[in-house]
């Protein structure tokens, strides 16, 4: 063996490169034959919050979403998408609006619209050697970079301008995709936690008046979403 490796016309590095190229070609052929290239999904679900924002908000389900996903290989993909959710809260008692302690009436109903756009990366687990149920569920982890646009409309205060603003955040979680027809259509379920720096996160406009209990010191809190999707693949 040593004589063959050291002989004229033999190059162990060429042999090694040939093996890598053959392996890569085989993987590419399998992906082109069995893989998914693009997908489009429409989604319905719920969006909720914890912390003070969760205490203040009443959620108006469902949330809506759609995304386009591009697969690099069997285990990696990138997606662009948008989601929308609606919430409201009711300030029936006076709060410290704009730092004015003389406020003597409640703000009333506040409608909250949240539109978020995101770019995400997914990593699908290799389940080839696991049970059939796990293999066909296509489990994955995902991380998203998100931009949230939030609009607060003061329905009962006609002279009060809407409070609009954006916030940067990340979404972390995972999901499952159950095939209806392999390589063509799936039902997806995705669970995410959202860490967002909303423009009104640390505002003190809803703080209790001195000597009162009603109100919120700020609107801090993390978001949570569960989305169920119908996914079409090509």
Strand % is over 45%
Give the CATH topology of the largest domain: Porin
Segments where pLDDT lies below 50 for 5+ residues?
none
Q: Report mean pLDDT, rounded to a whole number.
A: 84
Major sheet, described briefly? Answer: 8 strands, antiparallel, barrel
Helix content: 10-25%
Shape summary = elongated
- CATH secondary-structure class of the largest domain: Mainly Beta
CATH architecture of the largest domain: Beta Barrel
Structural class of the helix and strand makeup? Answer: alpha+beta
A few lines on this structure:
This protein has 234 residues and is α+β, with helices and mostly antiparallel strands. The chain has four helices and eight strands, in the order ααβαβββαββββ. The protein folds into two domains: 1-34; 36-233, Porin.
Walk me through what this model shows.
By secondary structure, the chain is an alpha+beta fold. The protein folds into 2 domains: 1-34; 36-233, Porin, CATH 2.40.160. It has 4 helices and 8 strands. It has an 8-stranded antiparallel beta barrel with strand order 1-2-3-4-5-6-7-8. The longest helix is centred in the first third of the chain and has 23 residues, at 12-34. The radius of gyration is 26 Å and the shape is elongated. The two termini are 48 Å apart.
